[in-house]
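Glucose-methanol-choline oxidoreductase N-terminal domain-containing protein, Allacma fusca. Tokens?
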Amino acid sequence: MLTIISTFFVAFYSFDNFQDQMSSQWDVEDKFDFIIVGAGSAGAVVANRLSENYKVLLLEAGGEPNPLHRIPLLAMFLLQKPYADWGYYTEPQENACLAMNKGKCSWPRGKSLGGSSNLNFMAYIRGHKNDYESWANITGDARWRYENVLKYFKKSEDYHGEWDNDRYHSHGGNLRVGQPPYKGMADVFCKAAEEVGIPTTDLNAEFIEGCSPVYLTQKRGKRLGTYHAFLKPIKQRRNFRIRKYSHVTKVLFEGPENLAVGVEYVRHGVTKRAFASKEVILSAGALNSPQILMLSGVGPNEHLRSFGIPIIADLPVGKNLQDHVFSLLGPFVVDQPITLNLEADLDPQEIKKFIKFGEGILTTSFLQASAYLVSEVAKSMGQSDWPDIQYFLISANIFESLRDYISISQNLPLEVLKTFFKGIMGQNSFQIANLLSHPFSKGELKLNSSDPFKPPLFYPNYFENDLDVKVVVEGAKRALNLVENSPTFKTMNARLHNISFPGCEHVPFRSDAYWECYHKHFTLPLYHPCGTCAMGNRDSPNAVVDSKLRVIGTKNLRVIDASIMPHITSGNLNAPIIMIAELGSDIIKSDWSI
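Tokens:
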């Protein structure tokens, strides 16, 4: 089956590339009102909103999303495919990714229309109210307060769920949000959480601690990324152009004000230029937008000079890199057959159910429920209303294909997983992702070369700050408490698989030292890089863009994507990125009197 799928991938993308080359004659007109770089979660939204009123060019380094990305269950299996993913890896770190090949964690980033919304696990989580209050305090701009950003979350939302009220949710937006038809153990997990003091609540409203089944961006059981939600419906607009396979190499500037007038890009091996009469907008993501800025001369002075790049503006581009990081706790074995068993459950009937009705196990992304807790570290810092531990329930038996794909997608030696999962294969089991929601550690992105086709260097610095270690150790212990002391899980005889993770055999199993070792070896990024073009006051030494997302020291250049976050939000980033794009689009329209 996997061989057939791979063959389909190659055939589809070869045809897509042929079609794109055949359509390249229409790029004779190179003057637009706005040029948007990147068609991912942010760029697709900005393109949709601005092309309502203006002539817009959208440049994307990849091609069309593959139809198989629409199947939620394939989310894990479709990571690290070169036609849809930049295939990045972190640099070796002292305190993380220790079990990975060469000490490098995998960092998939979307490379197609829809970007990482084609690769993610579709969780729709807006974050916490305090995330946005802090953004407003950092920038001094009330536009970023919770009450204001809430209306932009609602603008794009088409909500279908159990907490349907006008204050927090809306209907009719581009993005359908709801629980998947297959919920697995979600209700069981939240019932057990309630039994240890974590209430069931709407995690997309105002809360402190709570649990909920995961809400996904789906429509009729299929993935609804930003391509299908925001781009596909407007592709025929006469004032809108998409150019796929267009790798932007730099922003073009003119005059003493560093006026952004266009971009240079390479398409099918040919260097081209396009010009914008109003603005250039970088929405290439938290890893590629800073790279483009630095290649264009916007970034740390000494770093750019070391590559012979002329300086346009000396700004801390690439600094403040943040990401959510986690480890999979478990497997937890249960006596009842209530967990997902793909080897037994995935049959022709399930495929028919998905194709015909959008139902069944193919609608799950593996993430079934989520919970938030406030750590003792947060309480000691006066943040008892701002949760910093997050859990995801992943209820699926470990089987050979899944184990092997974890190895491939996470750059983790197969022998390590064979040892760790010994004796557990095929048993009824689940795992809990123990997530660091508010990392204290910050990393950095640097250029590797002045060659725009060489990937940057990524130094996330996971667990560099000891407070992060304290939080994940507490998270691990409280997850064990949830499983071992809740009546619900006790009735299932839920218990932790008792094999130490390879590399941590030297410390007592289940001790604090063990959980520290465990997370530093079995380090799993949640693929939420952000903060590399941080928003702030124009006179702040930490700011790359101001509160209107304009690049400081330049004119008519903005960044609209996850890179502008001053600090990471409390949850998955796709929903906040779409909000940023909605708000940013309105700011642009206001500035140009529309």
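Confidence is low (pLDDT under 50) at residues 1-28.
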